[in-house]
Amino acid sequence: MPPAVGGGLAGSELRPRRGRCGSQAARAVGPDVATEATARSPKRPAPSSRRFEAPGRWALLALVTLMSFATRFHRLDQPPHICWDETHFGKMGSYYINRTFFFDVHPPLGKMLIGLAGYLSGYDGTFLFQKPGDKYEHHSYLGMRGFCAFLGALLIPFAYLTVLELSQSLPAALLTAALLTFDTGCLTLSQYILLDPILMFFIMAAMLSMVKYNSCANRPFSAPWWIWLSLTGVNLAGALGVKFVGLFIILQVGWNTLSDLWHLFGDLNLSMVTVGKHLTARVLCLIVLPLALYTATYAVHFMVLNKSGPGDGFFSSAFQARLSGNNLHNASIPEHLAYGSVITVKSARMAVGYLHSHGHLYPEGIGARQQQVTTYLHKDYNNLWIIKKHNTNSDPLDPSLPVEFVRHGDIIRLEHKETSRNLHSHYHEAPLTRKHYQVTGYGINGTGDSNDFWRIEVVNRKFGNRIKVLRSRIRLIHLVTGCVLGSSGKVLPKWGWEQLEVTCTPYLKETLNSIWNVEDHINPKLPNISLDVLHPGFPEIMLEAHMVMIRGNSGLKPKDNEFTSKPWHWPINYQGLRFSGINDTDFRVYLLGNPVVWWLNLLSIALYLLSGSIFAVAVQRGARLPAEVEGLSQVLLQGGGQLLLGWMIHYFPFFLMGRILYFHHYFPAMLFSSMLTGLLWDTLLRLCAWSLASFSLAGHVHALGILSLLLGIAYSFYLFHPLAYGMVGPLAQDPRSPMAGLRWLESWDF
Amino acid sequence: MLGFLQRPVVVTADINLNVVALTAVGLLSRLWQLSYPRAVVFDEVYYGQYISFYMKRIFFLDGSGPPFGHMLLALGGYLGGFDGNFLWNRIGAEYSTNVPVWSLRLLPALAGALSVPMAYQIMWELGFSHCAAVGAALLILIENSLITQSRLMLLESVLIFFNLLAVLSYLKFSNSQKHRPFSPSWWFWLMLTGVACSCAVGTKYVGVFTYLLVLGVAAAHAWHLIGDQTLSNVHVLCHLLARAVALLVIPVLVYLLFFYVHLLLLCRSGPHDQIMSSAFQASLEGGLARITQGQPLEVAYGSQVTLKNVFGQPVPCWLHSHQSTYPMIYENGRGSSHQQQVTCYPFKDVNNWWIVKDPGRHQLVVNNPPRPVRHGDIVQLVHGMTTRLLNTHDVAAPLSPHSQEVSCYIDYNVSMPAQNLWRLDIVNRESDTDVWKTILSEVRFVHVNTSAILKLSGAPLPDWGFRQLEVVGEKLSRGYHGSTVWNVEEHRYGRSQEQKERELELRSPAQMDASRNLSFMARFSELQWRMLTVRSDDSEHKYSSTPLDWVTLDTSIAYWLHPRTSAQIHLLGNIVIWASASLATLVYALLFVWYLLRRRRRVCDLPEDCWLRWALAGALCAGGWAVNYVPFFLMEKTLFLYHYLPALAFQILLLPVVLEHVSGRLCRSQLQRSFFGALVVAWFASACHVSNTLRPLTYGDRSLSPSELKALRWKDSWDILIRKY
């Protein structure tokens, strides 16, 4: 075993662990390592754990797993109606079964798995999942719930094993398992058709495999090392494939890998070739493999969803051509734009939609009281416009006239087909973007004024060229004011039916906002040409899908005067989420953490910061710690440090997010914080026992402490279990309710 | 005792002529023709308003930055004897004679001028040669964008000054740490670091990033100090305490001091009063205070009150009702109760008055002695002018169908009983028996029958509701939200029994006297919170840009154009300096990573002290650039080129660091070194040349012909204004 470079903290990273992998390694590498391991073993923080033989450990793990499955599957079928976001994710599962295309702000893996679970368990995708509270009746929903509960139940053995690996202490692992098993929040979140159990499963699995491969560090390139390393990569792909917050665990693994490589790099006994091998292995398993898997999920996603569905309008024209049932699929339309054509105009910016107008006026006080012009994401006959010459009102479709193509630089008029009003702009401020001009529909039966004239330009083309459907990127420049037609992407208030604002911007900067393309094109005088050019490659549609998701996510903004959950509410368990039921006659499920567990977690973070900094300062001051304390401080600083980092990475970024946030976003962080609690209390109690060693009862301090914590947590679960398993009867505000005494915070409304 | 008689009194002064000369040219470049142009230039139009408010001592609210920067500008106005009378409405408007332009622009210009010798000092304290230090100072001196920004009534140069001051004093402090800890100069520089940091934060919020950087470096140094086992524990503790006091406590205190002075100065009510809470408004002279002075404090049964919504979004408004009823059928076909409308109205009106009534009694006057209303009491609210009772029931609200409609009950004798009992819930109560207080108490009205809470939904009603804001009963109330909370603003005890008399009483203004002063901390926290949350809606500007445009100088801002000639001031950087500073950052980063990796493999290219110097210079200069630049990528506000200038100032300091390193360490032979020296001279000459070429746009003193202007348009994205004759 090479001496570790850097001394102090750095060297101990490479110390042999007592995990399975570690003990094998000791046997394999040779006597010197084995002796070193035994020489250090007095420092082991877990003298009691050595007494446990392998069967005992397995039995305990089995017990933990059993408890976890028992709690998660208990009353899984209750309530037999849609709860909370099941309405979305169940519906999306059905879309996969029906193979219809849809749009969601999250990556597809989670919903695909839900769909798969439903498919395998005999759900036929016919249930509509319309709104929370709808009864499932004869539809089979237990397969999907069971799948989520299964993954949710696995969290606990994973947490157990992670803590065991980090602390080498069974009591710590047991405490963690109890915290999570008896947390009503984790329980509730695991029992329904949601993305969260799937996400948390992948996060914990990634964490566990990372910890496992860390403890194989002294036997690099062995089979278990490779397995754990590549499993880490697989789980990272899974986490990111379910929700974008999976990025946080990637950051954590990335940080761990970097510091690992940094230690290897500083080890002068390793040749550069070996270091290069280490680097390559990590690049392969932690970058290439996850990326490949992540991409593969999208490939499956696009392959499965090949029918036109509710998500079409969010995507570009080219994208839609892939979907069977869409009017662009295998479409044959006239290729060049001519006067008299009926067209739809789509913004080049993702998820903005089609230029739209309808027979409603702008309300008084908002610009001129003329017809609204907006963009609209869905296909609709109000998206149709007729392209006309600016100076004549004669019908260009008159068969006697020759076909005249529209060319780059022409002055045109766009007439709305349904209402016969012209696209119009003038010096009035736009409804939302005050510095832009208002765009309206104006005129009667196509007769308006000179403010209806637009110059059509193709980006990056010469004057005089014809304009191609779908492929030409065009700009419409208002002739009188010189502004450019664009969509600001802002949502209009109720009077505008929450469609998006269209403005004429005087700033001629070239942005996607002001670029459009013609999508549908109807002109009976022109021959239809099959448009097989529209086959975007996989990288393009993947990129587009991401752009649309990111825009969708950032569009989820909280409105004014709305109660929103703030990140600082979460760790203090300030307020829960109603999963089902409101009134006292309803079957009510309320997502709320077990306050005993959560407040213990909160206390533990503070205690950890305190004790951790005391130890860190002591080490930095060069204090000589007794061997036992030294071992405990290593567990606290390194194992605990990883968990604390996990908690911070999964929690603090939410403070920076502008999108609307919900309580359940905290749960991944809560897993880390519970693991930290388990590890911390075990270590602190051991320290206590050590410092009281002179007293006769010292040996029992640790055991008693752990036992009382376990019992306390179990009792609190007994008190709060109705939150998760459902309650009927008077609300907790009512003193007659059995839950009345448990409403410890006024903000809890169960 | 009379020792000074026996020995001569000697004063020895070290005068670094470099510093003196640099200060002189700095002053010359920044102060030359300072009062030209005598017209409002760009953002002066914006800062000028606030200067006028300070001069007139009128309260205002500005979300763009803390008050220290504004106060500094106002100090210039005060010194110049400005009376605040100028209409700041248009860029390019000529200043009237009462505006002391020179002294208004003096402080930013001085800050800009002093940055030049400070750059020199920083380089010197970092342990680089005089040559590098002079180079750094000269680069700051000739950077056109810094000159332009310093010569106007703008805050960037002040911010840069305090940023550099914080770094400089920290360096001075940490250099004296080795030899003379706890000496007076050690204390002085340590304290100055803290003060400069809070001045930077007080000028603009982005100053906080430099503060964090200095804190980070200080923390790293302190961590080494802890590891120094030659020091005793007590000694280490003293060191840590001194740092904590100077770098954490003092900045907070100084920051509070800014607000204290700000609130002390602005004591009169003004145009932004409405955004603040009633209690805050009442603490200002005039305005609401004039109305509410001497109102009875405790709300009693029979009190006449106006109820203001605490959240006040989209506009501050008062609970209101009027004769009109909800339309039978809404546009979308839903039905209503056809009861009298209840809205929230953003103007003072006689229809905003409500009377608090005891459900058990009929009279609408206050008993003698008054019977105060307490937390948890059941009350009815009577609309003063129509004497109808505030009511809500299970009918969908006009615009928020998930909530209940709120109305004033009209008995149509249909099967729709009155449900007009409300439980009073004082949110900020201290005990459960608290009395409802005017202005101070924030209350919620919980409907007794349905547990709905009276809430401002914020949606403007259609024409039938006169575009007033919708008020609803929120059934699913989730915790605390300002829109469900109301406070009494105007208040008096009702005396008149008869409706006619009462109407007269309602129309007469309330008056009596007493003052209710908020504590400073309460006012500070409210003001700071409002400043951080107030929203400005302009998200686009002709000259706005994105952070990516800044590094390559792909954008510019036209500041001012002479009304007749084409003399103009244009914010443009010295492109040679910008490009080479970016290049230097890249070279620094690559070299740093290279050295770091090699050190890890025990190959030490640099001696230890040289490496530490190199790392510290990087941490402060490259780090200063990064912390002042990267956060802008996350900001959603409108960004301009001048936001980059604080980062640029740090980046320029990195240039001589890299140049000296390359010439001293990487050039192996004397020949290479001479060659490199010649290159540097040539490069510097070209920077000077560019600076001189752009000078007419920087100072705006010379009118250029259209062809000359076209020749200056080196990038297509520069919007240099060319007059068409």
UniProtKB/TrEMBL annotation, chain A:
**What Gene Ontology terms describe what this protein does at the molecular function level?**
dolichyl-phosphate-mannose-protein mannosyltransferase activity
Lipid biosynthesis as UniProt keyword: no
Q: Which residues cross the membrane?
A: 109-129, 141-161, 192-213, 225-255, 279-300, 596-619, 631-649, 661-681, 701-720
Q: Where is this region: Disordered?
A: 1-51
Domain MIR: residue ranges = 334-390, 403-459, 464-521
Question: Which pathway or pathways does this protein act in?
Answer: Protein modification; protein glycosylation
> What is one GO cellular-component annotation here?
endoplasmic reticulum membrane
What is its subcellular localisation?
Answer: Endoplasmic reticulum membrane
**Matching Gene3D superfamilies:** 2.80.10.50
One of its Pfam families is PMT
Q: Could you say which enzyme class this protein belongs to?
A: transferase
Task: List the catalysed reactions.
Answer: a di-trans,poly-cis-dolichyl beta-D-mannosyl phosphate + L-threonyl-[protein] = 3-O-(alpha-D-mannosyl)-L-threonyl-[protein] + a di-trans,poly-cis-dolichyl phosphate + H(+); a di-trans,poly-cis-dolichyl beta-D-mannosyl phosphate + L-seryl-[protein] = 3-O-(alpha-D-mannosyl)-L-seryl-[protein] + a di-trans,poly-cis-dolichyl phosphate + H(+)
Name the domain of life: Eukaryota
Record membrane topology: Multi-pass membrane protein
Provide ranges: composition bias, Gly residues.
1-10
Q: Which UniProt keywords apply?
A: Endoplasmic reticulum, Glycosyltransferase, Membrane, Repeat, Transferase, Transmembrane, Transmembrane helix
Biological processes per GO annotation: basement membrane organization; dentate gyrus development; reactive gliosis
Q: What is its EC number?
A: 2.4.1.109
Would the keyword Transmembrane helix turn up in this protein's UniProt record?
yes
Function noted in UniProt = Transfers mannosyl residues to the hydroxyl group of serine or threonine residues. Coexpression of both POMT1 and POMT2 is necessary for enzyme activity, expression of either POMT1 or POMT2 alone is insufficient. Essentially dedicated to O-mannosylation of alpha-DAG1 and few other proteins but not of cadherins and protocaherins. Transfers mannose from Dol-P-mannose to Ser or Thr residues on proteins.
Q: Which protein family is it in?
A: Belongs to the glycosyltransferase 39 family.
This protein is called: Dolichyl-phosphate-mannose--protein mannosyltransferase
Organism source for this protein? Balaenoptera musculus
Q: What gene does the UniProt entry assign to this protein?
A: POMT2
TrEMBL record, chain B:
Q: What is this protein called?
A: Dolichyl-phosphate-mannose--protein mannosyltransferase
**Coiled-coil intervals in this record?**
none
Write down the species. Answer: Balaenoptera musculus
Q: Name one GO molecular function term.
A: dolichyl-phosphate-mannose-protein mannosyltransferase activity
| Top EC category | transferase
Q: Which UniProt keywords apply?
A: Endoplasmic reticulum, Glycosyltransferase, Membrane, Repeat, Transferase, Transmembrane, Transmembrane helix
- Superkingdom per UniProt: Eukaryota
Q: Does the keyword tRNA-binding apply?
A: no
Q: What does this protein do?
A: Transfers mannosyl residues to the hydroxyl group of serine or threonine residues. Coexpression of both POMT1 and POMT2 is necessary for enzyme activity, expression of either POMT1 or POMT2 alone is insufficient. Essentially dedicated to O-mannosylation of alpha-DAG1 and few other proteins but not of cadherins and protocaherins.
Q: Where is the signal peptide?
A: none
Recorded name of the encoding gene: POMT1
- All copies of domain MIR, residue ranges: 296-359, 370-427, 431-491
Q: Which InterPro entries match?
A: ArnT-like_N (IPR003342), MIR_dom_sf (IPR036300), MIR_motif (IPR016093), PMT-like (IPR027005), PMT_4TMC (IPR032421)
Q: Where is the protein localized?
A: Endoplasmic reticulum membrane
